[in-house]
Amino acid sequence: MRRLKMIVSYDGTAYSGFQTQPHGNTIQDKLELAVKLLTGDTVKVVSSGRTDAGVHARGQVIHFDTESRIPAERWAIAMNSRLPDDIVVLEAQEVDQSFHARYSAKTKTYAYTINNNKFPDVMRRKQELHHPRPLDWEAMREALRHLEGEHDFTSFCSARSTQASHVRTIYRTRIDHLGDRHPDYQGVYRIFVTGNGFLYNMVRMIVGTLIEVGEGRRSSSEIPEILEARNPMHEKLTAMAHGLTLWEVRYDSGDGTAT
């Protein structure tokens, strides 16, 4: 039995999230079907983490076990010929049985993109939140910095969370103005959050709170108080799913990196 690791990119618009659901139409369903069409094997695909309905991935990492002897270097092209055009395998490699896409991960980075222009970009409308009202981006950066470090993020997760602990560590955060590098992206900003793990709806709730800060409805100084309250029911805005992308997952050097 071989264990294969793959890096997968997808547009989550048409799907009910990554994980298999009773009604089907998930990223996991499509990947498992592609493997079955290719090899005849029925496999269980394991991901680095679930993404919700409408959320995208630039560098999702998966693994599965197979008895197929197809060389690892041929898997990406073979899978892509059997996948919908909004799911792409970028890389495939054989790994040790000890590798686990979720439990071996050291850091994950999510990115949330906001178009802060008067009008949306019709070509990118499914990958970025259009927010035409002015935002104070410096205040949002200050608020984001308060979230760095180890905290109990109960106040930034859904009350539906089933995790035993809500303590997570945020290693790095930043907000980039994409227009600084490309004229076509004037007024478009991308929020990056890197941590050791994330709770259900955590990043979308962080972004929702940042938007409230940017609009002047909250002060950045309130963030420590919200964290300390550890209240999953506190009033908060949850940003729309379509602006969120699982950007990359990093492992120990021996496991490789999703970039």
UniProtKB/TrEMBL annotation:
HAMAP family xrefs: TruA (MF_00171)
Catalytic residues in the record: 52 (nucleophile)
Binding residues annotated for substrate, in chain numbering: 110
EC number: 5.4.99.12
Key word Membrane present: no
Segments forming domain Pseudouridine synthase I TruA alpha/beta: 7-104, 143-252
Stretches of the chain forming a coiled coil according to its record: none
Family (UniProt): Belongs to the tRNA pseudouridine synthase TruA family.
Functional summary from the UniProt entry: Formation of pseudouridine at positions 38, 39 and 40 in the anticodon stem and loop of transfer RNAs.
Gene: truA
Entry superkingdom: Bacteria
Gene3D superfamilies xrefs: Pseudouridine synthase I, catalytic domain, C-terminal subdomain (3.30.70.660), Pseudouridine synthase I, catalytic domain, N-terminal subdomain (3.30.70.580)
GO molecular function, one term: tRNA pseudouridine(38-40) synthase activity
PANTHER family, A to Z: PSEUDOURIDYLATE SYNTHASE, TRNA PSEUDOURIDINE SYNTHASE-LIKE 1
Keywords: Isomerase, tRNA processing
The UniProt record lists the keyword tRNA processing: yes
Enzyme class: isomerase
Protein name (record): tRNA pseudouridine synthase A
Self-association and partners: Homodimer.
Reactions catalysed according to its record: uridine(38/39/40) in tRNA = pseudouridine(38/39/40) in tRNA
